[in-house]
Design the sequence.
């Protein structure tokens, strides 16, 4: 498990990351969302040791992270690019070696990954000779070398074509199945919602929300939709509820006093038919907008 | 904690995944330090680069060609034809006979013609290179339109000798008697004139090679730093190895390449020289050449770190022009300083790094340097290199990850990491 504790980074007067704490549990995908300049990239760079830490710490398996640990964390920086004029096999082997693999092992793993991504025939090609989509595949391979103990990916899906997104997702799922913690940032909330087990929302350098998607959707003031056999106008007279929307037989209410929704159901069944009584959970995008507003 | 895994601070025992053979892909079993990996990539990616190989081959051809041309020029006998009218036939024959003594590369053939018109026609038709004829107060050598350098020298010397002999005989004496005691010979306390000339020429070559290599490899180093910075691969590298290792690897790789290339040029040059009449100097040149290589090594490392800084201050290739200006200026100062300084200025400069890298080898070539002087200069240069490595490392490390446009030196120096 990767733990981020009270991480803080200032650039001059500007505090880019302000006492941010969260966890990236083993085997789970943690999405990292927030607007531009929210501090996602700065946080990830601090986690990777690429940027110095002003305050706070990063823990790996419960103790302060070391360079050796970081070497085993797959990292994809926000902007992409490798060596354009070097054969892809050579540069991937080089990166794997920098990360501590021996030459033979690195070659074997790189070859395997290149084949998996359909680049087995092009190992000797210079990176710049590949199509953009294939260059992105090479970039993905570079970030999962060597078989990572954790993954920190900054906008891994940006610019990927749908097929590359699918292979990336498959790959990530494979890693989480093996117990690898994955942290990735993204602007694409639909993708985050589809993929993530957990979510951390950053706004202006602060953590404004964190938890599983379900937790976050449950976290707000509970809302219920009630659909009756007859007119629902009487709902307005109940205590502890705020009616957000009322239209004929249908009402949307927000619970302001715990238990008020139980009175609502009791009253409704007493008065007649209840067609629908359901908890309304806000969409992720709504939560995100509220949290970062 | 199980008993069979003693607790240590290494990754392999702390992390249960690392002990699992299925998930441990061979971490930290590599036998090479990170800087060596970087060095190797720099060297391999460069020597497999066609433009680098072609450039080196071109330079070798150029050096070999230059030396070959000079050798050929030197060995070649200049055959000239001297037209002589009846009034100058005797003198022309004397010149023909005496020419090899004056200049052994000039062979003169006499072409006897009847009169002025025939002589001029011969000149125009390129049958003769010059026409010698007496005038009222001496002799004249007429040629078509260009000065016949070697012929003129020979004619001048022989005519003078001949006329002097005749004049001396007329007044009842000899040339030798007239010239007795008038010779001025030159002598050097150190070496001799030809040696000084060779030292001057080789000194120029040293200064030029240093300038050329420092500029070419420096630029290359700086742009490879930008390449990594611009593509952000540097973040992947910085997450895996200390940035210090990256810098060391890049500097060492480019230094190795520069030195290898320099050695190739020097070997081609010295071997080429041994085929010319200067071959006797080759043994005497090997000492200074060895010193030059040592000075080159220290000087290049010092400058390479600064080039890496110039690269790291830029965010895009377009910025390099601006961030490297102070360095290109320094290169020019070294180049012209190396060429033009002499006397006391040269002695002082030969101890001042980084200019000493080119000036001291030149002084060693010229001779008369005390044994301790090159050692002191090399020591100072090495100390300077150590300082630039230290300063360069700090600047490079801090500027490398700042990607918003150009970074100023002050920003880089004071930036938090």
Sequence:
């Amino acid at each position: 498990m990767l733990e981020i504790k009270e991480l803080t980074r200032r650039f001059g007067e500007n505090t880019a990351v302000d006492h941010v704490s969260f966890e990236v549990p083993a085997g789970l995908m943690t999405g990292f969302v927030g607007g531009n300049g929210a501090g996602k990239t700065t946080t990830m760079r601090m986690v990777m040791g690429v940027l110095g830490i002003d305050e706070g710490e990063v823990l790996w398996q419960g103790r302060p992270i070391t360079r050796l640990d970081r070497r085993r964390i797959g990292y994809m920086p926000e902007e992409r690019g490798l060596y354009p004029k070097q054969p892809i096999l050579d540069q991937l082997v080089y990166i794997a070696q920098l990360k501590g693999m021996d030459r033979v092992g690195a070659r074997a793993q790189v070859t395997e990954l290149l084949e998996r991504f359909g680049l087995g025939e092009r190992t000797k090609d210079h990176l710049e000779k590949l199509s953009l989509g294939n260059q992105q595949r090479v970039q993905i391979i570079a970030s999962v070398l060597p078989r990572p103990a954790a993954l920190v990916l900054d906008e891994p899906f940006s610019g990927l074509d749908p097929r590359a997104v699918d292979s990336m997702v498959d790959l990530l799922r494979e890693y989480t199945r093996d117990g690898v913690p994955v942290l990735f940032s993204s602007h694409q909330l639909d993708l985050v919602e589809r993929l993530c087990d957990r979510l951390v929302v950053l706004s202006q350098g602060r953590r404004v929300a964190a938890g599983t998607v379900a937790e976050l959707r449950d976290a707000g003031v509970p809302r219920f939709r009630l659909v009756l056999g007859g007119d629902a106008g009487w709902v307005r007279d109940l205590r502890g509820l705020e009616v957000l929307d009322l239209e004929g037989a249908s009402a949307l209410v927000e619970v302001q006093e715990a238990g008020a929704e139980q009175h609502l159901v009791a009253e409704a069944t007493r008065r007649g038919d209840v067609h629908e009584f359901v908890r309304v959970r806000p969409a992720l995008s709504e939560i995100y907008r509220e949290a970062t507003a | 904690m199980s008993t069979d895994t003693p607790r240590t601070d290494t990754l392999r025992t702390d992390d249960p995944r690392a002990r699992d053979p299925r998930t441990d892909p061979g971490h930290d079993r590599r036998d090479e330090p990170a800087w060596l990996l970087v060095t190797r990539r720099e060297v391999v990616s460069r020597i497999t680069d066609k433009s680098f190989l072609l450039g080196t081959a071109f330079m070798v051809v150029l050096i070999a060609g230059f030396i070959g041309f000079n050798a050929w020029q030197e060995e070649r006998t200049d055959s000239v034809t001297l037209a002589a009218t009846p009034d100058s036939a005797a003198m022309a024959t004397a010149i023909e006979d005496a020419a090899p003594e004056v200049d052994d590369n000039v062979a003169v053939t006499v072409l006897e013609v009847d009169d002025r018109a025939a002589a001029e026609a011969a000149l125009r038709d390129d049958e003769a290179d010059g026409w010698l004829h007496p005038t009222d107060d001496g002799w004249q050598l007429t040629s078509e339109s260009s000065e016949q350098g070697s012929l003129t020298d020979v004619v001048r010397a022989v005519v003078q000798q001949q006329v002097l002999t005749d004049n001396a005989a007329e007044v009842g004496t000899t040339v030798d008697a007239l010239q007795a005691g008038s010779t001025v010979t030159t002598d050097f306390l150190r070496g001799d004139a030809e040696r000084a000339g060779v030292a001057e020429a080789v000194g120029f070559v040293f200064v030029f090679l240093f300038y050329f290599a420092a500029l070419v490899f420096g630029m290359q180093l700086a742009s490879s730093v930008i390449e990594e910075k611009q593509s952000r691969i540097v973040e992947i590298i910085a997450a895996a190895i200390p940035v210090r290792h990256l810098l060391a690897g890049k500097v060492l790789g480019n230094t190795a390449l520069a030195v290898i290339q320099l050695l190739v040029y020097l070997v081609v040059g010295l071997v080429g020289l041994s085929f010319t009449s200067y071959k006797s100097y080759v043994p005497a040149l090997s000492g200074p050449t060895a010193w030059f290589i040592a000075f080159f090594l220290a000087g290049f490392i010092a400058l390479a770190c600064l080039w890496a800084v110039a690269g790291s201050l830029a965010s895009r290739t377009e910025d390099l022009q601006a961030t490297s200006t102070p360095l290109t200026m320094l290169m020019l100062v070294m180049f012209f300083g190396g060429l033009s300084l002499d006397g006391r200025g040269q002695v002082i400069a030969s101890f001042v790094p980084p200019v000493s890298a080119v000036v001291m080898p030149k002084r060693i070539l010229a001779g008369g340097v005390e044994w301790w002087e090159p050692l002191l200069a090399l020591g100072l240069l090495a100390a300077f290199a150590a300082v630039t490595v230290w300063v360069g490392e700090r600047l490079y490390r801090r500027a490398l990850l700042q990607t918003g446009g150009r970074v100023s030196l002050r920003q880089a120096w004071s930036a938090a990491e």
